[in-house]
């Protein structure tokens, strides 16, 4: 386990800042707005802070069985790179996005055994004795023409975009026990059952919200992958890991079906953590209704595919979470993101969001440029102590793990937040 963890991380942050070659980068990296409440603090006494992370590590493949094959030996270059990123960041709990679902945890077991538990390029091995995986809506045939192109079948007519069942899935890894008998999943929640849902509208007709037929609305699911409430027991206290990966708000037409779905997938968690009638409509895959119990500690994790000000998501989509009264946004940042935006130019030059908070290195010409897409958002009962995005400067030896396109690891960056869990021992 980490020793004097916060002091060591502050030292590393200072060293990284010293390697920045321009005053602008230093100022952008080391100055955080006071209203964000993100000042680095030294943790004094009590148990170690809990480090929670999200990482879209792009370990998705294009055929069933391919991920298992790639992870069956310890020499896949991409898997080694993403494993080292995790080893360098040392999260206690991490959500893996775009990790293909394989029944029986076979892929997760191979990733742990052949990559995470073997030191990569001088990094220390990391052990996650607990894992949670479950089916994803991606690639599951709907039996309908959901994209209205005149034919049925293929990835765009699945309940979630995917070329095979489970592509772009998720996994949770944890150093702390997972209360698997208390996990709630929302894979089959129907989009139409969300009050005030932003159902897409066919702009060629006068009828409202008619992109999907009544028969299609009876089967169309809200979650493009799934939404999970995974309780993790930390020192005798339960922290609910709320994991998801909403669809990108692109690859559609004027009906904006993906943008609207992205908004409502994000909204599901905003409603779920709100006590009272706001969350009463939500039902899980066992048919149990209701949201999170009042007073529960939680962390929302995932690639939300929504930047606060830039990109293609519906305005206000991610604000449903980062401005929620029960949620803290610790604003994880990096110097590498600032440097990348300045060097790459293109769409980044017109962005309104501060580049220090970017978490994804997307195409700059013509759009969308680098965005903040990945989030670790704790409840107010979990006091944030430190936060960062793993995006090294080009002068940092670890830059080889992120690099430039074609990326050695992923076009997303690992994001972590340290929190204090009240009452943990």
Percent of residues in beta strands?
15-25%
- What's the CATH class, please? Alpha Beta
Mean pLDDT reading = 91
CATH superfamily: Endonuclease/exonuclease/phosphatase
Shape: globular
Summarize the biggest pleated sheet: 6 strands, mixed
Radius of gyration: 21 Å
Instruction: Provide the helix percentage.
Output: 10-25%
Q: Write out the strand line-up for the largest beta sheet, numbering strands in chain order.
A: 3-4-2-1-11-10
SS element count, helices: 9
CATH level-3 fold name: Deoxyribonuclease I, Chain A
Unreliable spans are 1-44
First-residue to last-residue Cα separation: 15 Å
Quaternary assembly: single chain
Question: What is the level-2 CATH architecture name?
Answer: 4-Layer Sandwich
Structural class: alpha+beta
Q: Output the helix-strand order.
A: HHEHHEHEEEHEEHEHHEEE
* Strand segment count: 11
List the domain count as a whole number. 1
What attributes does this structure have?
425 residues; alpha+beta; Deoxyribonuclease I, Chain A; 9 helices; 11 strands; 20% helix
Question: What can you tell me about this protein's structure?
Answer:
This protein has 425 residues and is α+β, with helices and mostly antiparallel strands. It has a single domain (5-420), classed as Endonuclease/exonuclease/phosphatase (Deoxyribonuclease I, Chain A), CATH 3.60.10.10. 20% of the residues lie in helices and 16% in strands. The protein has helices spanning 5-18, 23-30, 66-71, 77-89, 106-116, 214-217, 257-272, 319-322, 335-344, and strands spanning 50-59, 93-99, 130-132, 170-174, 184-185, 228-234, 237-243, 297-303, 374-378, 383-389, 415-420. It is globular.
């Amino acid at each position: 386990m980490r020793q004097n963890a916060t002091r060591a991380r502050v030292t590393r942050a200072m060293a990284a800042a010293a390697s920045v070659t321009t005053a602008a980068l230093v100022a952008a990296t080391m100055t955080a707005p006071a209203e964000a409440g993100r000042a680095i603090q030294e943790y004094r006494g009590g148990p170690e802070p809990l480090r929670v992370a999200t990482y879209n590590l792009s370990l998705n493949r294009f055929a069933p069985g391919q991920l298992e094959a790639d992870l069956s030996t310890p020499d896949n270059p991409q898997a080694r790179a993403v494993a080292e990123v995790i080893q360098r960041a040392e999260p206690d709990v991490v959500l893996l996005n775009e990790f293909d679902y394989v029944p029986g945890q076979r892929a997760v077991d191979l990733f742990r055994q052949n990559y995470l538990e073997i030191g990569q390029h001088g990094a220390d091995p990391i052990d996650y004795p607990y894992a949670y995986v479950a089916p994803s809506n991606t690639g599951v045939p709907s039996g309908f023409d959901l994209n209205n192109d005149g034919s049925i079948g293929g990835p765009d007519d699945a309940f979630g975009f995917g070329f095979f069942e489970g592509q772009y899935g998720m996994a949770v890894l944890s150093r702390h026990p997972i209360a698997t008998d208390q996990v709630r999943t929302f894979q089959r929640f129907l989009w139409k059952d969300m009050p005030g849902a932003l159902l897409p509208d066919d702009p060629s007709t006068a009828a409202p919200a008619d992109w999907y037929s009544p028969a299609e609305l009876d089967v169309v699911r809200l979650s493009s992958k799934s939404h999970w409430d995974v309780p993790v027991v930390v020192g005798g206290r339960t922290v609910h890991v709320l994991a998801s990966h909403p669809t990108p708000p692109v690859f559609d037409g004027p009906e904006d079906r993906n943008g609207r779905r992205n908004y409502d997938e994000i909204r599901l968690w905003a409603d779920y953590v709100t006590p009272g009638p706001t969350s009463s409509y939500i039902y899980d895959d066992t048919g149990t209704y209701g949201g999170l119990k009042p007073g529960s500690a939680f962390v929302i994790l995932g690639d939300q595919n929504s930047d606060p000000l830039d990109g293609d998501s519906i305005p206000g989509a991610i604000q449903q979470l980062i401005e929620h009264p029960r949620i803290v946004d610790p604003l994880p940042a990096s110097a590498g993101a600032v440097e990348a935006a300045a060097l790459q130019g293109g769409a980044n030059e017109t962005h309104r969001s501060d580049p220090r908070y970017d978490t994804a290195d997307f195409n700059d010409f013509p759009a969308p440029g680098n965005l903040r897409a990945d989030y670790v958002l704790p409840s107010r009962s979990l006091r944030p102590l430190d936060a960062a995005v793993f995006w090294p400067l080009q002068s940092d030896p670890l830059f080889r793990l992120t690099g430039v396109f074609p990326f050695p690891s992923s076009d997303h960056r690992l994001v972590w937040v340290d929190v204090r869990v009240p009452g943990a021992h």
